Amino acid sequence: MITPVLPTYNRAQVSFVRGEGARVFTDDGTAFLDFGAGVAVTSCGHAHPHLVKALTEQAQKIWHTSNIYQMPGQEKLARRLIESTFAETVFFCNSGAEALECSIKMARRHHFVNGAPERNQIITFEGAFHGRTLATISAGGQEKYLEGFAPRMPGFVQLPFGDMQALAAAITPETAGILIEPVQGEGGIRPLPHAGLKALRDLCDKHGLLLILDEVQTGVGRTGKLFAHEWAGITPDIMAVAKGIGGGFPLGACLATENAAKGMTAGTHGSTFGGNPLATAVGNAVLDVVLADGFLDNVRDTALYLKQKLAGLKDAHPEVIEDIRGEGLMLGIKCKVPNTSLQAAAVAEKLLTIGAGDNVVRLLPPLVITRADVDEALQKLDRACKALTPRAA
Q1: Distance between first and last Cα of the chain
Q2: In CATH terms, is domain 18-34+294-392 a member of 3.90.1150.10?
Q3: What DSSP state is assigned to residue 192?
Q4: Average pLDDT by consecutive 10-residue portion of the chain (393 residues)?
Q5: 3-class secondary structure, 253
Q6: Which listed site, 37, 58, 64, 95, has its alpha carbon 20 to 30 Å from 167?
């Protein structure tokens, strides 16, 4: 018999009723250290007082009016994002997949209004994950997500990750843009070298293409900069954002230059709920936290400390851990045992992590974690690794 909730998730047999900072609690009060953050979503931790205040104050005023009307909170958040990034305009939505849908539509529309409707092909890369809609699973190109949903939507050309020679050869008069995650998340915490991002920017400039970045998982301080592309010293034309921007409240955004957004006029795109007063109140509160003096410095310092500790863990457990990878507080443990085994062993130690492709366990803690949280997490991971080694049997 089918379950009341459509059974599309392999859920862990644990549930949480309360959260505080980097911890979540079951109904009997058992605490778990959360190094998954709802897949990089609870950027400011659970129940952050400033976010709670912003949401509850807005909830007592007005929840929803639709984008038929002006929304001051949305305008404020858009202006703040513009002031902090390359962007000159922002479209608000509810999720990363929606932000990518807007990005894809914008790239096609850009060339259409510039007299080149044939330029509708977007180059993507093996291992990518851009969402669960028909367009975004086609862009990602992973067979496990495409199975049973044929036909694949046209308009995407997929290449090996990081293969610049193949990329240069794949550009044709039909190419509209290049879509890539600066660090692949679901694909196994695989960073594109900074030189690679610079090369993509140069190729786009040379061929009149739009560089589209999926910063749904890497954005809003996750790598130690507000957005990951800043490490490479380049800017995109279009960028999809979600997850951490809402701190746990559903919020997504598509940021773009004026040139890239040319053609996105009234009626070409929309969202009933996107950027509603509740969402943008929380989004503004998240920026208050993340843009505060010293916050990103602390993220970088804590991330370096975590990465150093993980290097020691790897040395201590060579039978379990093959490599440590990633940037900032977006780190991956490449496993020699099944990554699901390490995840399960971590849960037994009351530590939450996230699985990924390439047999990787992701560590995506709230950006507010302390060194004490890191030390506790490493103790739990150490015990989890010991439970998986032959000598512990």
Answers
A1: 38
A2: yes
A3: P
A4: 94 94 97 98 98 98 95 97 98 98 98 97 96 95 93 95 91 98 96 96 97 98 98 98 98 98 96 97 98 98 98 97 97 97 97 97 98 98 93 48
A5: strand
A6: 95
Six token digits for residue 274: 């996107």
Show Cβ contacts of residue 85 under 8 Å, excluding neighbours closer than 6 positions: 226, 227, 239, 255
For 6, list phi and psi in degrees, rounded to 5.
-50, 125
Strand-pairing partners, residue 90, are: 255
Coil, helix or strand at residue 223: coil
CB 181 within 8 A of CB 357: no
Closest C-alpha among 45, 50, 81, 22 to residue 219 = 81
Angstrom distance (rounded) from CA 297 to CA 329: 12
Coil, helix or strand for 152? Answer: coil
Q: How far is CA 256 from the centre of its chain?
A: 17
C-alpha to C-alpha distance for 192 and 342, rounded to whole angstroms: 26
pLDDT score, position 114: 97
- What local confidence, expressed as pLDDT, does residue 162 receive? 84
Reported in sequence order, the residue ranges of the chain that DSSP labels E, i.e. its strands, are 18-20, 23-25, 31-34, 89-93, 121-125, 156-159, 175-180, 183-184, 190-191, 210-214, 238-241, 252-256, 321-327, 330-335, 351-352, 354-356, 360-363
Residue 253 phi/psi, 5-degree rounding, is -155, 145
- The burial class, CB within 10 Å (0-12 / 13-18 / 19+), for 15 is exposed
Q: Residue 7: is the preceding peptide bond cis (ω within 30°)?
A: no
Burial of 188 (0-12, 13-18, 19+ CB in 10 A): buried
How far apart are the C-alpha atoms of 146 and 137, rounded to whole Å? 6
For the chain, residues classed under CATH 3.40.640.10 are 49-290
- CATH code assigned to 49-290: 3.40.640.10
Whether 114 and 299 have beta carbons less than 8 Å apart is answered as: no
pLDDT at 391 (0 to 100) = 60
Nearest CA-CA partner of 14 in 342, 341, 350, 250 = 350
Selection from 281, 192, 278 nearest residue 231 by Cα: 192
Which segments of the chain belong to CATH 3.90.1150.10?
Answer: 18-34+294-392
